[in-house]
Write a structure and sequence with these properties.
This protein is of the alpha/beta class. 53% of the residues lie in helices and 11% in strands. A hairpin with a 2-residue loop joins strand 6 and strand 7. It is globular.
Length: 351
């Protein structure tokens, strides 16, 4: 056994129903006295109780999917102009992503308060979109110093978004089995993440206000993100990042659609990973376990349903091929990648 594993330094607080006090404690512990609070107007009701407990000097509401460069630049200027010394983000992956974009150039610490299962809060990965191109990178400055998970903040998350966001977390787990830096620790975390998500998501789908199901899903999403931060971005995420940036597709739904096709593509060439995934699902085969879960959740099925044009397959082929890591378990060719993308675009059954 020979590998190098890096564990990222971060405080994680699970505090159902107690986020205002928990966030205030984290801000104080980090020495923050001038908070830039990043939360879209959609999150206002969730953010207001937290804002009352912390020293806010600026509330920033311009949050845009995939973090366009020009949006990031406006937020960065606002942080500097306000003299902020700490960032608090309340929202999903786009909100966390904007906080990361600010931290990347200012070095300000982040306290992240997730309201979806995106997982970005537990990684040192940043992403910015310029035109049709989404660029991602690694920098420890963007890793939130603290994360506060409050299941109560997710009780109003719409059912469709819960499913898509949870399957996005599942994709972090699956990609962590064979990412470019994947190691045994990543695989162990990812396997437990899959088990937790497969347990929590059906419970949340049945009762979107049930705190136990939400907490199990948050736990799984956190493990997924920790594994992914270490293992790195594999084939699945490279596909989704290219498609998302190129066609402005919704992030979580794109991941939810593409996941089963990538799993079917790679699993035959990664028997250890396939066995771990299957065991986590309590299924004989990994693909069957994921398919059963997707059926229960009525998961998103086709990229065309979210605005991807069919001729976009040929346009995306080159950038995706270039982005996929060399150590992907299955050999990638123009032919088999085109077939995968066509199937995901149409929502074809997986053989």
């Amino acid at each position: 056994m020979k590998f190098t594993h890096a564990t990222l330094p971060q405080r994680v607080v699970f505090a159902a129903g107690e986020s205002p006090a928990a966030v205030a404690a984290e801000v104080e512990a980090l020495g923050g006295s001038k908070v830039m609070l990043i939360a879209s107007d959609r999150e206002k009701e969730l953010a207001d109780p937290i804002a009352q407990e912390i020293p806010v000097v600026l509330r920033h509401e311009e949050v845009v999917m995939h973090v366009p460069v020009e949006v990031a630049e406006r937020a960065r200027r606002a942080a500097v102009d306000a003299g902020a010394d700490i960032l608090v983000s309340i929202g999903g992956g786009s909100t966390t992503g904007l906080a990361k974009a600010v931290a990347l150039t200012t070095g300000l610490p982040i306290v992240a308060v997730p309201t979806t299962y995106a997982g970005s809060e537990a990684t040192n990965v940043w992403g910015l979109t310029e035109g049709e191109t989404k660029t991602t990178g690694l920098d420890d400055k963007v890793l939130p110093a603290s994360v506060v998970y409050d299941a109560g903040l997710l009780t109003t998350l719409p059912g469709e978004m819960t499913v898509a966001s949870g399957l996005n977390a599942m994709a972090h787990c699956v990609d962590s089995m064979w990412g470019p830096r994947a190691d045994p620790i990543d695989r162990a975390l990812a396997q437990e993440g899959i088990r937790a998500l497969a347990t929590g998501l059906p419970a949340v789908a049945h009762d979107s206000t049930g705190v136990e199901g939400i907490e199990q899903t948050l736990y799984g999403a956190y493990l997924a993100a920790v594994a992914f931060a270490s293992a790195g971005s594999g084939m699945h995420h490279k596909i989704c990042h290219v498609l998302g940036g190129m066609f402005n597709l919704p992030h979580a739904q794109t991941h939810a659609v593409v996941l089963p096709y990538v799993l079917a593509f790679n699993a035959p060439h990664a028997p250890e990973a396939e066995a771990r995934i299957a065991q986590a699902f309590g299924s004989r085969k990994a693909g069957a376990g994921l398919a059963a879960l997707r059926e229960v959740l009525d998961a998103p099925r086709a990229l065309r349903d979210y605005g991807m044009p069919e001729d976009g397959i040929a346009k995306a082929l080159g950038p995706i091929t270039k982005a996929i890591p060399d150590n992907n378990p299955a050999p990638v060719t123009d032919e088999n990648l085109t077939a995968l993308l066509k199937a995901a675009w149409a929502g074809d059954p997986i053989n």
